[in-house]
Structures are given as C-alpha cells and as structure tokens.
Amino acid sequence: xxxxxxxxxxxxxxxxxxxxxxxxxxxxxxxxxxxxxxxxxxxxxxxxxxxxxxxxxxxxxxxxxxxxxxxxxxxxxxxxxxxxxxxxxxxxxxxxxxxxxxxxxxxxxxxxxxxxxxxxxxxxxxxxxxxxxxxxxxxxxxxxxxxxxxxxxxxxxxxxxxxxxxxxxxxxxxxxxxxxxxxxxxxxxxxxxxxxxxxxxxxxxxxxxxxxxxxxxxxxxxxxxxxxxxxxxxxxxxxxxxxxxxxxxxxxxxxxxxxxxxxxxxxxxxxxxxxxxxxxxxxxxxxxxxxxxxxxxxxxxxxxxxxxxxxxxxxxxxxxxxxxxxxxxxxxxxxxxxxxxxxxxxxxxxxxxxxxxxxx
Length: 360
What we know:
single chain, mainly alpha, Serine Threonine Protein Phosphatase 5, Tetratricopeptide repeat, Arc Repressor Mutant, subunit A, 3 domains, 16 helices
C-alpha cells in the first residue's frame, strides 16, 4: 500500500508546511526559464523570427525575477541576447545600442567575448568571431551600402582590433564592391548560423534545460493513451493490433520532441530598440527602448532619424557632385564616409541645399 494512503490529513498538512512556498516558486521559475531558453534555441534553429521575439518577451519577464539563483541563468541571458543579434543580423535598421552606427552583427561581435567561457572548443570560438566580423561587412555590401561597410571596418579597428590580414582582405572586398566575392562566400551568413547552432548543440548537451519539456511530454503521452483507451472501450470492434501500431506511432512522435539541437531579444525593426552591452546586467540586456522612440515597447517601430547633416558632410556632397555630376549618388557614396546614408538621402539633401541656394 502506498505510504501516502496511511497519512492522516494532519500529516499531509505538516509535510506541506515543511516546504517553503518561496523555495518551490524558485524551482518552478527556473524550470520555466529553462523551457523558454530551449524554445528560443529551437526558434533560432528554425529561423522563426516572430516566434523568437514573442518567446523572448516571456524570457525577459521571467529573468527579472529576483528569486533566480546561479550563474547558469546569467549565461542563458547572455546567450539569448547574442542569439537575438544574430537572428536580426541582416536587418541593418535594427538597433541594439545607443550608437546608431552599431548594427546587429557588430553588437553580437561585441557581446561574443563575454561568452567565451561557455565554449568548450577554442577553434569554434575563433570561427564564430571571424564569421561575425566578416558578415558585419558582408551584409552592408549585400544591401548596397558600401559607405556603411567602410564605417564597419573603421569601427572594428577602434573597438575590436581586427587581425591585419583579415582587415586587408575585407578592405579589398569593400573597395571592389563585390557582394559575392569568394572570400565572403567562404564565410557566409548561413555558415555563421550553422556554426552558432553547433555551439548551441554542445551547450545544451552539457547544460540540459529540458526538465519541464520532458514532464509536459509525458503528460501529453498519458492523455493520448487515455483517449485511445476511451475509443477502444466504446468500439468493441477495434482489435489490439491497431492499438500497438498507434503506440508505436506515439514513440516516433516522442523522438520528434527531443530537445537536442542539431542545427542553430526583441529588437524592433528600423533602427529601433536598444540593448546596451557596456555592463552585462539583466536590466541592460533586456532594455528594449530607444531614446528617440516613445513607443519602443512595441515591436516593429519606425526608423529613428539619422543625425543632422553637418557642414563637413555637405562639403563631401558638393565635392562629389562636382566630380561625378548630379544624380551619380552611388559613385559619390564611394568617395567619402556619409555615416550610413543612402543615395536617396544624398539626393534629398542636395535638393534642400539647392532650394536654399547654398550650392549652384
């Protein structure tokens, strides 16, 4: 007979009182955070941006709980922040930091060294580092923003100290404006995703975060079994053979629910939310507001306005028109660093200067 059947109500109450509710809450919170972490890894692997952002909101809320303990949750918070930057890597108008010139992959490269202790393979860490550096430039060229690509190189020279050979190679690629240069193809964005996925696979294998997922899977399987038994009891014509077959199918489905990742927070689009990485606290990593956007708490906001045109930029523009002629905006962009501005922006600025009679 089960020992619990011999317990009196008083004994049961005594057992409950011996366990602190706050301690139980802490354990539950940890399980929930782990489940959200695994879910984020899955969404990253499958490239589901909307689901990733929605799950990230929940992860953010749970991670703010003061009851959480242990360094593992700090690690997972950093990993999620890193994944968000890679996830939005090709969206150059997404803002994770106050500095609008820092695009997602640049921010990811800035955050990545803080996760070095979570990478067991040194070569894997170096590979991801190089891929982040190369793709920070490559995505700019892919979007037709050569001046932005040049700005990225200058930023890395100042903040990351690019290896000399890599700096020379990237400078050549930018000068040639070859979006599909063999060097860039060798360090493609898809390769970056695959390598990050490999890192996640190893991390999850070493740090299992699937207790709640496994428990929920068992509940679902039990419910499916009970439903099947109900069907059998109502229809005596069903034999045991199809029942065994159905049970076999359920075992197959269970494998699909495995938490092992074999392949690889919420920024708004258009230079929007920012997450500072100057101090790696939870508050900063989850800070999704922009000083220039009063509605930064909602997803997909409009792009914040670029900084004002300076006399120096106007001079660059005037010299460019004199050299190449009005309308040759793409060529003019190649002459100087216009701080991420596009050809259309140059055209609009030239019209403003002309209407103000500041240029001939």
